[in-house]
Write a structure and sequence with these properties.
The protein is an alpha/beta fold and about 210 residues long. The protein has one domain: Alpha-Beta Barrel (TIM Barrel), CATH 3.20.20. The chain contains ten helices and eight strands. Bound molecules: ligand 3NM. It comes from Virgibacillus halodenitrificans (Bacillus halodenitrificans).
Length: about 210
Amino acid sequence: MTSIHKILRKYFIMGSQNCSMPPGEILKEAIAGGITAFQFREKGLGSLSGEAKLELGKELRNICKENQIPFFVNDDIELAESLQADGIHVGQDDLDVEEIRLRYPDFILGLSVSNSAEVNASPLHLVDYIGAGPIFATTTKDDAKQAVGTDWIASLRKDFPELPIVGIGGINTENANKVIKAGADGVAVISVITSAKDIKKTVKSL
Ligand code: 3NM
C-alpha cells in the first residue's frame, strides 16, 4: 500500500460553516482520534472569505503541521499555495486539473467524481486520487448529486485496480465499513465528525 492510500483512510473535511464550536478545537480532537488527512473546505452558506478565510486556513494548517497530518485545500489554488498545503482537491466544475498539474507538480491532487460519465471524461492519469460520491444521501453539500451507493465503488475498483479512491457523502460509523469493503481506500467525512458528541471516539470507531 502506497502512502496516498494510507492518507485517504480517514479523511476529515471541514470549514467554519460546518462547525458549532471553534474549528481548531474540532480539528485537534479529530487528530487525537486518528484522522489521516484534513481538507479545509470553506464553501457554501455562511462560509468565510478573504482575510478571515486566510486566517482560519493558517490556524488549521498549523495544527496539521504540528501533528504531521497532510493538509489539503478545497478548490482555491492561491490559498493552497500561500498555506503551503500538501494537496488540493477540486470538483468537476472547479479548477482545471491539467493546469494545476502543470503549474503545481508537487501538490497531491484529488478530483471529485459522481458518475461514470464524469469518470470517463476526467484525466485520471493526472490525479493522485478520486473522491467518489455521494455514496449515501447527504445534507451537508447543497448541490450534491444523486447518491451512488457502494456498488459503484466496487465497479470503480474493478475498472481501476490501482487508483486511490476515497468514498464521500453520508458516511458514518455504521456504514463506513461497507465503503471500505466495496474497495475504497478510505472514507471522507464532514458531519459525522463536526456534529459528534465525542469526536475522538467517533473517529476511532469509523
Ligand atoms: N462532496 P457528509 S458529498 C463535500 O459527493 C462533499 O462529491 C460530496 O459531507 C460529493 O460527510 C460532500 O456530512 C459532503 O455527508 C459530505
